[in-house]
Amino acid sequence: MQLRYSFRIDPTPGQRIALAKAFGCARVVFNDALALRNHAHEQGLPFITDAQLSRMVITQAKQRPERAWLGEVSAVVLQQALSDCTTAFRNFFASVKGERKGPKLAPPRLRSRKDNRQAIRFTKNARFAVTVFGKLRLPKIGDVLVRWSRELPAQPSSVTIIKDAADRYFASFVVEVQQQLPAAPAETGIDLGLGHFAVLADGRKIDSPRFLRRAEKKLKKFHKALSRKQKGSSNRAKARSKVARQHAKVADARREFHHQTSTHVIRENQAIYVEDLAVKGLARTRLAKSVHDAGWSAFVSMLEYKAKLYGRQFAKVGRFFPSSKLCSACGTLAETMPLNVREWSCPCGAIHDRDVNAAINILAAGRAERQNACGGPVRPPLAAARADEAGSRGSAAA
User: Fold this and answer.
1) pLDDT per residue over 246-262, tens digit each?
2) How much is the pLDDT for 373?
3) How many CB atoms lie within 10 A of CB 32?
4) Phi and psi at residue 335, in whole multiples of 5°?
5) Other Cβ atoms closer than 10 A to 73
6) Which of 84, 187, 191, 293 is catalytic?
7) pLDDT at position 265, please?
8) CA dist list (Å): 32 to 29, 72, 87
9) pLDDT confidence of residue 80
10) 355 catalytic residue (yes or no)
């Protein structure tokens, strides 16, 4: 399984200039390739192949005076930008044909130099390397200082250099890993919410840190200062950087929380079941800020890939499953269950905590789905007929 290991890097001022050139060249190659393919489509011409496109926007472009500066960066960076353009078109075509899951994708669009995120990719052909002194050697850029937080488990197949909106630089390595954890006896269902971030089937409740809510006061101050700066001024650029850095702190804290929580759940349980929430729909309601602050989708994605990595079982329960309204003791389904009801009593006498009851039902539904998928009996077994049971005689049936 391939994973990404991301580390902060500290390029020198000269290396920052070289990286800026590489970002710009990759962006120009992508936009030139996109423009040529769009023009061919508008003129009714055949789709331009990758080989033709590489010759037109890279090889021949370097020979023209207005594109001669493309030769100042690594050719692998340009080829990877061209590959990104091809991948964008393939994903778009697959989405139009219905071969790609998820919402329909829009056609590829031009990249802007004002985008908050700039990235370039080096593959093994670029001969990047990690030196004996722990620096990352990049072609035509030099040896870049890396803040290593751990060792790479294997030799990376590629590295992506990223500059985010807060003007931070990262090196993201793609590494092939194979890990296994000892089997765990427990299984759990997880009910995600806003009052508590997650409630497990064993009754444990994980509080929601609400990172964005905590930082709202400071963000409000920085946004107000940004709105008062003149557009195009250096003071506005400084104010924009402050806002971006504060948002980056919030995102980093949320991501760290998701990683720690998901790893803890994966290590303790052999099977994990979660509810397939309609996050996009909830993000359009009055709870939008809280939903985005919780980051359920990112957390579920971490659970999914970590379960695959460590040999755990992971499944999603359908979003229309009435986990909150169903009594986990007797199976009685309540007619209504408003959000303000956090504890309710069943006619059978059981008293339920809404979230814990939902987590227990999600665990039971996940187990049932797994047994059915593995060929288990779906219908209950037939019971033997009693002697005094009313029925048809053989002569009447004939």
Assistant:
1) 999 999 999 999 999 99
2) 58
3) 21
4) -70, -50
5) 22
6) 191
7) 95
8) 5, 18, 15
9) 96
10) yes
Q: Which helix (H) or strand (E) holds 377?
A: none
Active-site residue, 191 included: yes
Q: Which residue has the tokens 């003791």?
A: 329
CA dist 38 and 251 (Å) reads 36
Minimal CA–CA distance to 166: which of 116, 215, 132, 100?
A: 116
* Selected catalytic residue, list 32, 84, 275, 293: 275
At 103 the pLDDT is 82
Q: By C-alpha distance, which of 176, 174, 150 is closest to 161? A: 174
Annotated catalytic residue within 355, 369, 388, 389: 355
Sign of the alpha-carbon dihedral angle for 125, 126, 127, 129: negative
pLDDT at 394: 41
Nearest to 316 by CA among 375, 380, 256, 272: 272
In a 3-state reduction of DSSP, which class is residue 337?
coil
Predicted pLDDT of residue 328: 87
CA 338 to chain centre: 31
Instruction: Look up the pTM and report it.
Output: 0.85
Taking each helix axis from N to C end, the angle separating 296-309 and 234-268, rounded to the nearest 10 degrees, works out to 50
CA distances from residue 205 to 195, 202, 322 in whole angstroms, order as listed: 10, 9, 20
> Read out DSSP for 246-258?
HHHHHHHHHHHHH
Residues in Cβ contact with 320 at an 8 Å cutoff, skipping those fewer than 6 apart: none
CA dist 186 and 270 (Å) reads 6
Give the phi and the psi of residue 32 in degrees, each rounded to 5: -65, -45
Name every residue whose Cβ is closer than 8 Å to that of residue 45 and which is 6 or more positions away in sequence: none
Residue 71 DSSP symbol: G
Return the pLDDT at 372. 67
Q: Is 143 marked active-site?
A: no
CB 385 within 8 A of CB 391: yes
Alpha carbons 14 and 16: distance in angstroms, whole number:
5
- Note the pLDDT of residue 8: 96
Helix, strand, coil % in the chain, rounded to nearest 5:
45, 20, 35
Spell out, as residue ranges, where the chain has pLDDT lower than 50: 378-380, 382-398
4 touches 157 (CB < 8 A): no
Burial of 74 (0-12, 13-18, 19+ CB in 10 A): buried
Strand 158-163: give its sheet, edge to edge.
118-123, 158-163, 169-176, 2-10, 142-147, 136-138, 129-130
